[in-house]
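Quick note —
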Amino acid sequence: MRKCFFLLAGVMALATAAGADGTIIEDIVAQINADVITRADLQHERTQMMAELQQQAPGQAQAMFAEREKDILRNLIDERLLVQKGADLGINADVELIKRLDEIRKSMNMETMEDLERAAQQQGVSFEDFKQNLRNSIITQQVIGREVGSRIQFTQEEIHKYYDEHKQEFSQPEQVRLSEILVATPAAEGQAADPQKVEEAERKAKELLAEIRGGASFEEVARRSSEGPTAAQGGDIGQFKRGVLAAELEELTFEMKVGEVSDVIRTRQGFIILKVTEHPTPGVPEMKTVEPRIMEALYYSKLQPTLRAYLTRLREEAYIDVHEGYVDTGASPNQTKPVYTTASVEEEKKKKKKKFLIF
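Predicted structure written out below.
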């Protein structure tokens, strides 16, 4: 029944794209169930791919494009199949689409969605096309996660084997990850800070330290009271290898334990309080420490072949017609190609004409 529905829908799509004499417009490159891919779709993907490659690797863009161009039609068919599967699964991307658009708006420091739309138009981008592409991307990601990713499994033996074969990649130098709370002592360039302000800053820093040692969260105190640039991140200032920090700070922090908080320290910027949040042992860490990284690596190593097998199955369950002169590099020999006759197209055109007369 499902295949019959898609065959009928496909005939309607082709009838819609037929010329006045009943011939099919050559602009159609492929039909996937009720969807079509046009020559304009292919050209758009080619242009977009070249633009992205030139941005990523200008000197290698032409060579990379020549290698990847052959799979453009395959990728478009993949997307159509996954979006259609999303519809079968009842996946609705509306909420996630609004969330993603809002994240883009915020990242571009824009006040409203209308500002984002205007920015797209100024760059020659159709905002509706952009939203549709983003919607399709969300749907395909959800289908892949549900239908492919959730079924990928690996054994403890595979995890051990990967760890043994990639130990050198996990090797790390000694380093500490630090968070800070800064109470600044600003001063005009070339001048010493006001002694009274220095005294006030030191007193404030000691009060904050007393709060932390009394049980307050270092991160919460940092968000509320730190005058450093990383206050919003709970004071996290990142990882430091040996030889990067000032000698006195390195000597202090590399001797501290994870979770330990320093006394108040005087610096040129003001008074700081430091906390060691990570202090991994140098060398190759134990497997349990890097197991999440191993599982992620194994997942992605299995994702592409598993996804390719899934897409092959979707192709075999669908009606796909790739027009002469074009090649789908992901095609399966077991695909079903619909057979369209002039009579079937003409019949659909007559039905559509009758509907228009009735309404």
